[in-house]
Amino acid sequence: SLLETPARVASVRVDGAARTPATYLASIINPQLAKERPETLEGALLATRDIGHYLREADIFSIVGARLEPAAGRDGDVDIVFTTKEKGRYFLKTSTEVGNNEGTAVSPVQLYGATQC
C-alpha cells in the first residue's frame, strides 16, 4: 500500500520560530524521531503527527501546520516542514477586586517563548 512506501525523514524544519531557541525545538523533535524511526510514509506521517502534538503542547505557538516535502537530492526521502506562528512574547492579565470601600488591581505579566528549555 501507499503507506508502506519507503520514505525516510531527511530533515525537520520549523518555519516561523524566529524567537524560539533551536535547542528547545530540538529537544521536542529529536526524541520523537528517535522513537518513531520513520522509514516509511506511514512512519513519517506518524512522526509528523507526534511532533506537531508536542509543538502545540509547548504553548509557544498560536498556529502549527505541517506538510511533507520531497527532500532535495534524496530520492524517496522527505522533509517534515512545520509552519508556525509564535504567540506574543507578553501576556497581560488584569483583574480588579472591590469591597468594603477598598480596592485592589492585579496585573501579572508572563513572558512566553523565552528560555523555556
Q: Which structural traits does this protein have?
A:
2 helices; 117 residues; elongated; 3-stranded mixed β-sheet; single chain; alpha+beta; disordered C terminus; 27% helix; two-stranded antiparallel ribbon
Overview of the molecule:
The protein is α+β, with helices and mostly antiparallel strands. Helix content is 27%, strand content 36%. It has 2 helices and 7 strands. It has helices at residues 22-36, 41-57; strands at 9-15, 61-70, 78-86, 90-92, 95-99, 102-106, 109-111. It has a 3-stranded mixed β-sheet, covered by helices on one side. It is elongated, with a radius of gyration of 20 Å. The termini are far apart. Mean pLDDT is 83; it is low at 113-117.
Morphology call: elongated
Order of strands, main sheet, comes to 1-3-2
Give the tally of β-strands. Answer: 7
Q: Estimate the strand proportion.
A: 35-45%
The description of the largest β-sheet is:
3 strands, mixed
Low-pLDDT residue spans: 113-117
Summarize the structure.
The protein contains two helices and seven strands. It has helices spanning 22-36, 41-57; strands at 9-15, 61-70, 78-86, 90-92, 95-99, 102-106, 109-111.
Secondary-structure blueprint of this entry?
Blueprint: E1 9-15, H1 22-36, H2 41-57, E2 61-70, E3 78-86, E4 90-92, E5 95-99, E6 102-106, E7 109-111
Parallel strand pairs: 1-3
Antiparallel strand pairs: 2-3, 4-7, 5-6
